[in-house]
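Practice problem 4.
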């Protein structure tokens, strides 16, 4: 299909481009193309126009599917993190999390090692659509939320949505339009306090002095803080008080009272960089981080 071919080709060229001016020119072409798409089309037609088969999908990762063991269908949206699409979708990211982002793990890591980039292309196309045609992105996402929720209810299952699986975007306006649906996210954004139907877990972003008050404010709001811990030290960290595993399930809105969530580091190919940058923590570094946050 012409539309699909055009945008996917531009995305492929964007990934290969090395000069900022090249990327800028490509983004301008993308913007012009997306602005020409008529919104008054079906979801299927809009998906075909932007070159993807879906925006968000149910139980589409190893982490999301774990919720099915507790009776939940989890709809997840994967976008291009940080500035990978040319626009920063993770405004409060740190060097460590950008280098070792989960965007480079799982199926995407396997695909990259085989010399393919279809997952990256799909995530860039979704990110571009959200940036340049938010109305189209929201129309598609709304339809997917409605259909996912309907299907879950029909099958006697519960339903939840995570819109920031690999991004940190403010979706509060979309979330507000679905007050009966449970949403949840991780964030480093100190201004994202969530809502009645949007559960927020704050994310560790390193020992930057500018983040210290963010951590303290999150705890004061009753939010938990998620820490990525090197795998060799996970069990030892979980033996400490006030910690709980965040690996067993992704359903953060069901968590217990412990303030600190522990995530085992996922292999991305850049794990060592994450450790060096103080984003991935060892046992000793975790103790140091908690003491620093608490002012002990």
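Answer key:
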């Amino acid at each position: 299909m012409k539309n699909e071919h055009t945008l996917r080709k531009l995305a492929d060229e964007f990934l290969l481009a090395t000069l900022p001016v090249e990327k800028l020119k490509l983004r301008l072409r993308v913007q012009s193309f997306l602005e020409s798409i008529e919104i008054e089309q079906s979801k299927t037609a809009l998906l075909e126009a932007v070159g993807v088969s879906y925006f968000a999908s149910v139980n589409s990762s190893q982490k999301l599917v774990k919720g099915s063991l507790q009776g939940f269908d989890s709809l997840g949206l994967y976008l291009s993190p940080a500035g990978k699409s040319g626009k920063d979708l993770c405004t409060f990211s740190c060097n460590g999390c950008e280098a070792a982002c989960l965007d480079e793990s799982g199926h995407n890591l396997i695909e990259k090692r085989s010399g393919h980039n279809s997952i990256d292309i799909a995530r860039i196309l979704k990110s571009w659509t959200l940036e340049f045609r938010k109305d189209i992105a929201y129309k598609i996402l709304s339809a997917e939320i409605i259909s996912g929720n309907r299907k879950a209810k029909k099958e006697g299952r519960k339903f939840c949505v995570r819109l920031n699986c690999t991004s940190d975007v403010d979706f509060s306006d979309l979330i507000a339009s679905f007050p009966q649906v449970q949403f949840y996210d991780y964030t480093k954004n100190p201004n994202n306090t969530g809502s009645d139907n949007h559960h927020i877990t704050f994310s560790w972003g390193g020992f930057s002095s500018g983040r210290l008050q963010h951590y303290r404010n999150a705890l004061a709001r009753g939010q938990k803080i998620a820490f990525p811990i090197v795998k060799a030290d996970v069990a030892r960290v979980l033996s400490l008080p006030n910690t709980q595993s965040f690996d067993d399930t992704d359903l953060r809105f069901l968590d217990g009272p412990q303030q600190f969530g522990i995530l085992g580091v996922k292999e991305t190919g850049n794990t060592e960089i994450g450790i060096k940058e103080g984003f991935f923590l060892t046992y000793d570094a975790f103790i140091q981080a908690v003491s620093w946050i608490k002012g002990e």
